[in-house]
From TrEMBL, chains A, B, C, D:
This is Amidophosphoribosyltransferase. It catalyses: 5-phospho-beta-D-ribosylamine + L-glutamate + diphosphate = 5-phospho-alpha-D-ribose 1-diphosphate + L-glutamine + H2O. Residues 1-199 form the Glutamine amidotransferase type-2 domain. Catalyzes the formation of phosphoribosylamine from phosphoribosylpyrophosphate (PRPP) and glutamine. The keyword Glycosyltransferase applies. It is an enzyme of class 2 (transferase). Binds 1 Mg(2+) ion per subunit. It comes from Enterococcus hermanniensis. The gene is purF. Transmembrane segments: none annotated.
């Protein structure tokens, strides 16, 4: 699932109790470009990871899974998410003698487990899982078992599947189950720890204080359209976002154009609902990887230039509705509007299939300050002018919740809507101060 | 234009009469991954090339542009296409003392130019261009000029644009002009040689015996949808292929699904014409490059497995019309049909937006024998069974010609239709024997 | 000082309290082949290390210096030597929650320092240095100081120099001081910890229980001839070994030939004492690195074949005294004798400028079992036959002690002679069992 | 024989008439670092080459052997030496249509062979060998034979050996025969072309106008001491140079120190003759490759700093005779004198075991202008001051000729002495003008 992280990748396998690993910086195709990088990863169990940096530097030391060799056995650990009390836990641990070898959050859990005085490994894990806070989906590999655990809010998706031969597969997204031919069994629930050992699956809760708050960005942008999260197909949810958006913000035009690839579902929904033809007015250069998860602003900006082309033969002289999934800094939108106009579009009406992003995320999406969010600093009308659109509308918060259609007995039907309204489902711990500071600053994107 | 070749790439620049070059195997991002590979390519003129192997081995010696240092000046040369009399020309040249350093066709032109006894470089080039036969679009860079030339049938597209500052740009496809911000000026016509020197553009014909026969595969598969070829937008042509296909081969179904990415235009045309909803039933893994131009059958087969996923949430229990642009060996189609059925599709009706491929190409598309063409060896009904489809139809030859809509006073309105009907617009020279042999063999794909 | 280790190398620099490091597998020329690997190592203090594996695997995780980032400051650590209680210390530490990231001994000291409850960093270091046992020379870099420490026996050399500008330099061998233009100040004494901070040098003892036992292999083989250890020049000591050997084991011959490069000093001493001409009968291929420190037996054997050539024009028809520094497995000697005989030498008399190696080293030389020592398993006469020599003699233990000429009030004048007589100057701790086992096994090298 | 060239290397093998090759920039260990680079070089005949640049740039296109694929068979070619009429031949060839792909001299022979109108390949080769002028030793590999040819003066060494199984081996130096276990058969004589085919060896002369003029630099510096050239052992010749030098230029001193490694033979000769002890006062860092054959002056200067160390313990307070093989620019000598004095040497008397280098070489040693030769621009007394020596003497020309002891009926007994006296054994052709110009310029090295 390369789309979930491009900075680095690794695999650790368990060959009769001996764990072997490979990891490296870059894409999977780079890390595993050589037979030799894969050929020693033998055995009957393995965990893998792709790194999408939220915290920690770009060193190979931060690439997961982390592999530990203890006198009493090997242990490997991978983590998707972001802890909110990592900094203070790390300081406490170091003060009592712990030594960290990465600056990733992930290592903390290992120290907590090793320092726990509980009697069994299982109890030590549970104690550790109750100590870390924030968004996390962990995968652990021991000599005898594989363990997966999800935070009490279930911010990140985590699903279990099963192969025809009975083997279990755990993955962040169900699309991975399809690719390897595994049948979907069930999602890991918030606060659950599942253990696969001796060919069987055990499900336990490490806490009873749970409340679903699934990351809405997974539906909007992050996950693959062929995945289901909490039983909802991502493509269908996006198409529905487009449909509701068409109802909420109609406009007269000659065609609907989606920004490839993540907005194509929403755009086709908008077209279907509005009865305006869907056209391929933007073409993506398939040889350049996607914008959002590249590390620096400069790289991101360079990326867009080559990545998309407007199709003059399609848009010239036409009124275009351009549908995109979200606006972060606004730079990409400005460029695409300008591409379309340069190619002769008469009008460009921008429709965003999600509400305005105004607040940082502390649970695993890399938006950690309001400074980089145009909607946190400008009104919709100002944004319209900044990106050069003829009109601009966003999906409403209620529209988003309806489109996804979760049904949990929890705020926002079980979605995390903090990016849009600042209503964080947990205390922010170490980030509280940083968050308060960010609320007060205002940046002009002009 | 990485999509036109992935085997290797190079650039030669002209810095005040001194030509400097870089070339290497692999993608552009690999060849030019380092600042240093680009930083010495200074100057005010340059030619570049991506290699798509039709003839010649995978050695770096075959990567173009070729750069020659003569006592009387530097010269660089790049070639898109395939010569039909390369083998005999090479033998003749070697017999009179010529030494070749690659096994690419391209070098031949250089020998012909250097051995010509004509008075001027321009005349020597014309003589050489009249000696080579087949499909060719050449780019040449000398100390004082850039020269582009197109074969008498104009098999390959070649367009001229101009930057705001007056600089000329020549490219195989117009999409490249858009990306660099150049305005389209005109296409190079069959048999033309254009020279850019001293800031001006000169157009000459090196032969008067011309007859347009534009490669129909460029419209069907090869070119980018945002390019125009002979004034026809490729996306629009493909959409029209889909529409005519829907008229020629309708079927009752719940949704139209295109095989991403090259068939999306045709699929949306089919959907629009048939009034059956267009859905995203197949998702492409954007991190894996496209099938057709990978070198070996084995690599191609491995590639497909990871590259596409059927979206269970969309196709489960549904009757699906799967639209693809073409069928070569049939293996890809069989896999996709099977993906869709595994994901729960009730019926899969395959509609191909081009006629059956039955004959090899000798002008630059890498299909050199009928052995690898399922439609050269099996009836449509047999193919339907082999790929596991519930029904199968191809676009008719007339449908294809209508969809593209060229208007030349030439056979097939100026298209090369040889892949479908064996009607080659030129003698086959060195390939004649091989072609006759391939007509007689029959291979079973069962 | 690449000759002290070829497996890997690293440097950590201190730039105003921020430590930056680079490390990698391979030779220095490989690890630092690129400007970029060096350019970020700015600052006014730095420590470096080359890895010669005695314990720990060939992973980059074991390459030093180790760099640690703590909430209260960065810390870097490099280690030359081998601990005898590493295994039990590590187990104890892990049992109380410590996590190790390498399987090198070196990390242990860091854990001990961080877990010490002493008040100051200096006291914590001393406590840690008193806990580890065996042979060690440590270099530590903190935000404000550089610290060097030597084990209570001073097995490994460690010297302090000073640049013209007052800067201090600490190095395993004095040859490094010469290369950078530093003046030799003094050797670090057994049990000393020296601290360089605020431009000044402080010397303390962390223990009073010291007894010099300098590794005799440093004089015989390991150190560079231009270094002085404990005030004794290595080349001069080797020349003296050759002279005493000539007295102890004379033989009639036409020439003395040294095995290049480490035996040239001893050979010239033998020649000078015996008045037999010194000739270049063996030539070393300078493009192949030296045998002893390559990792596997197989690589070692392949290495010898290409590495040395006998000079037919010199040795043909002659009686040759071949002087070598030591015999480990005997394979090298057998090959060289055979090279000389193949090149026409009439007789080959082997003279070894050190006593027979019979016991493993646990303090930092990679001979950890008697199985690999021919002299632990065969008599001198048997060895003579095995290597095909016409006669064979070793230097006596007393001869070695005399040749080096140390003057400490300690057994063997302050040398460690354990390789020859099994008289280890310290308890063997974790190695005791392994050592007892090795005493009982006997292997035939026939 | 890596010592003969470090810029690049290659091998071409003949597998049943199909030639396969690998070549690359850098040391042999870099070019062939991977099993894969060697594993396809199968077959029963092969030629290899290491590049030492005299003419042509540092591009991989210039790395040999060159491999050509002709319609009538493959051909590979490697060249040691330098042609004096390369430039004019190349121009002539290009004017008649030839295309060159490297800027190395070597390719010229191939064009001449291919363009020859003689009836047989053998005759065509002979014609070509009579057309090129200067210094050359060629190795050619065809589908059915291996051919070696030596210029009419025999500037470069070239020897034939035979394996136990009857296979023939041709190599520039006899040391290579020893390493592979081949028995020396005979040297290739000036003007000879030898052909190995069908398991047999044929010797022919391509010209009768021959006159031996063996490069004296081969004896002085270039060749390995364990090689024999024209029956003379190189080490023995060097030792003799040292002995004669001691007779010609005695001086009172405490020790003789050779500059490692190429001057050790001469130094030991000087010591033996003068009865002054030979000591190891300079130590070479074996991990840094030798000076002379690195490409740029800057690299050469950097190299020396780390490469040699003076041994303070040996030279301190002593009068030292420093023996070196030659002085080119004087920078190395100045550094070594300064190293010795910094290490405490009281006096440093420099003795050079060859006459002063005053004239460029056009036959294959990379000294192409007098600007870089200190002895072409300064008197011996000036050089003494420039390098900081207490005294300086060179071997006389007669002394050199005597030391080597050739016995040919030719000027200087068959040696080329042009570097010392400008007496070139052939016309200089294309270099004549450049040579005349260099005679007139005078550069100060102060």
């Amino acid at each position: 699932m390369q789309h979930r992280g491009q900075e680095g990748a690794g695999i650790v396998s368990n060959d009769h109790g001996k764990l072997n690993g490979t990891r490296g910086l870059g894409l999977l195709s780079e890390v595993f470009k050589d037979e030799r990088q894969l050929s020693h990863l033998t055995g009957n169990a393995a965990i893998g990871h792709v790194r999408y940096a939220t915290a920690g530097s770009g060193s190979v030391d931060n690439i997961q899974p982390f592999l530990f060799n203890f006198y009493d056995g090997d242990f490997a650990l991978a983590h998707n998410g972001n802890l909110t009390n990592a900094k203070s836990l790390r300081k406490e641990l170091e003060q009592s003698g712990a030594i960290f070898h990465s600056n990733s959050d992930t290592e903390i859990l290992m120290h907590l487990i090793r320092r726990s005085t509980k009697a069994t490994l299982c109890e030590r894990m549970k104690e550790a899982l109750n100590t870390v806070k924030g968004g996390f989906a962990y995968l652990m590999l021991t000599e005898k078992s594989m363990v997966a655990a999800l935070d009490p809010n279930g911010f990140r998706p985590l699903s279990i599947g099963q192969m025809v031969n009975g083997a279990y597969v755990v993955a962040s997204e169900t699309c991975a189950l399809e690719v390897v031919g595994a049948k979907f069994i069930q999602d890991v629930q918030p606060g659950e720890m599942i253990t696969i050992a001796d060919g069987g699956l055990t499900i336990e809760s490490f806490t009873s204080k749970t409340q679903p708050a699934i990351c809405s960005m997974e539906y909007i942008y992050f996950a693959r359209p062929d995945s289901n999260i909490a039983g909802i197909n991502v493509h269908s949810a996006r198409k529905k976002m487009g449909k509701i958006l068409a109802q909420e913000a109609p406009v007269e035009a000659d065609m609907v154009v989606g920004v490839p690839n993540s907005s194509l579902s929403a755009a086709s929904g908008y077209a279907e609902q509005s009865n305006i033809p869907y056209e391929m007015g933007l073409v993506k250069n398939q040889y350049i990887a996607r914008t959002f998860i590249q590390p620096t602003q400069e790289l991101r900006e360079q990326g867009v230039r080559m990545k998309l082309s407007a199709v003059r033969g399609v848009v010239e002289g036409k009124r275009v509705i351009m549908v995109d999934d979200s606006i972060v800094r606004g730079t990409t939108s400005r460029r695409i509007v300008s591409l379309l106009k340069d190619a002769g579009a008469k009008e460009v009406h921008v429709r965003i299939a999600s509400p305005p992003l105004k607040y940082p995320c502390f649970y695993g999406i890399d938006i950690q300050t309001r400074r980089e969010l145009i909607a946190a600093n400008h009104s919709i009308d100002e944004i319209k002018s900044l990106i050069g659109a003829d009109s601009l509308s966003f999906l409403s918060e209620d529209g988003l919740i309806d489109a996804i259609g979760l049904n949990f007995d929890a705020p926002y039907s079980g979605l995390c809507m903090a990016y849009f309204n600042g209503d964080y489902p947990t205390p922010l711990y170490d980030y509280e101060k940083q968050y308060q500071a960010t609320l007060e600053e205002k940046v002009s994107f002009v």
